[in-house]
Amino acid sequence: MRSLLITCLLGASITAAACGTHSPTSPTSASASNATTTTPPTPTATSGATVSGTVVGSSAASSVFRALGTTMTVSVTGTSTSSVVDGTGHFTLTNVPAGHVELHFMGTGVDARLAIEDVAERATVTITVRVNGSTAELDDNEREDPNHNVEVEGIVTAKTGSTLTVAGKIVTVNATTTIVHGSTTTTLADIHVGDRIHVHGTDAGTSIVATNIDVQNGEETPGAGDDHGGDGHADVELNGTVSGRSAGCPVTFAVSSTSVVTNASTEFADVTCASLVNGDRVQVKGARQTNGSVLASRVEKKK
To answer: Are residues 127 and 207 in the same domain?
Structure first.
């Protein structure tokens, strides 16, 4: 009997029933009641942005590119984030870091980089990129943050009353909208179809209500549109790189997405119509037409 009692006192893990006696509170049950339950941490929502887009250009969107089964990829420099560009030119990148972002396009005959500035956390960015060889240019750029603040950058394709169409989006301009061209404040009347603009506004469901509009127009000299030629069209000056050159002469091309048209009266300096190629940096002087294009009176190649 003495041996059994010693065993029960020393063996805390032996139950009272095994010892032939009943204890109202055993050491084991007390420990269990005081145990701390650890709750797994709740995963935090990702702060990365989503960048989706469409690649266009002779190197990526042509039927030849797709027929060859060539794969193009786009990645975010400095991260492991990447996406395959599908046969229709579309791609989607998730968990893209905020701030300055560089996209790297790689494929057969393609090694190009594109910088996107000021990407916000959890923003949705939709872009159209023109890729050709080592060149990537941004055609359209639309952004929306979680608070429904929207940015749209692109060419004005339609203008009706107080609304503009940019990158397929309807932009509403009202009395509180600020419109600038460089350092000059301007008005809706000075925005034309074919102009490149950058819109800041809010998503109103069916349209974007613009708070600020920056008229870009391919580095057009501020104030140049204040003068007019004899035909009543504004005289403008463009500085930029030639893209989208047509075959033959007279030639048409684009400078930062502004269409430039030449004719038999166009003067060429340090370059000829026949020798002008995509990638040349030029200064164009001419008259803006009603469709937004510029009829060039002079095209000068710059070093």
So the answer is: no
pLDDT digits (tens, 9 = 90+) for 149-190: 899 988 888 999 999 999 889 999 999 999 998 778 999 998
Q: Which domain holds residue 92?
A: 49-144
Residue 125 near residue 141, CB atoms below 8 Å: yes
Tokens 């339950």, residue located: 37
35 domain residue, yes or no: no
Percent of the chain scoring above 70 in pLDDT = 74
- pLDDT digit string, tens, across residues 224-234: 444 444 444 45
Indicate whether 257 belongs to any domain: yes
Report yes or no on 27 lying in a domain: no
C-alpha 236/C-alpha 256 separation (Å) is 14
Q: Which of 99, 121, 144 represents a domain boundary (last residue)?
A: 144
Q: Percent of the chain having pLDDT more than 90?
A: 30
Name all contacts of 68-72 with Cβ < 8 Å and 24+ positions apart. Answer: 68/108, 70/107, 70/108, 71/107, 72/105, 72/106, 72/107, 72/108, 72/110, 72/131
Does any domain span residue 271? Answer: yes
Pull the structure tokens for residue 145.
Answer: 């943050």
Q: Count up the domains in the chain and report the number.
A: 3
- The CATH code of the domain that includes 94 is 2.60.40.4130
Instruction: Give 238's strand partners.
Output: 284
Instruction: Decide if 164 contacts 191 (C-beta within 8 A).
Output: yes
Q: Both 155 and 173 in a single domain? A: yes
Dihedral sign of CA atoms 58, 113, 139, 275 in order: negative
Structure tokens at 291: 């469709």
Average pLDDT, the chain: 77
Residue 65 in this model has a pLDDT that exceeds 90 = no
| Spatial separation of the C-alpha atoms in residues 117 and 81, rounded to whole Å | 17
Q: Pseudo-torsion of CA 32, 33, 36, 41, nearest 10°?
A: 100
* DSSP secondary structure, 46-100, as one string: P--EEEEEEEESTTTSSHHHHHTT--EEEEETTSS-EEEE-TTSEEEEEEEPSEE
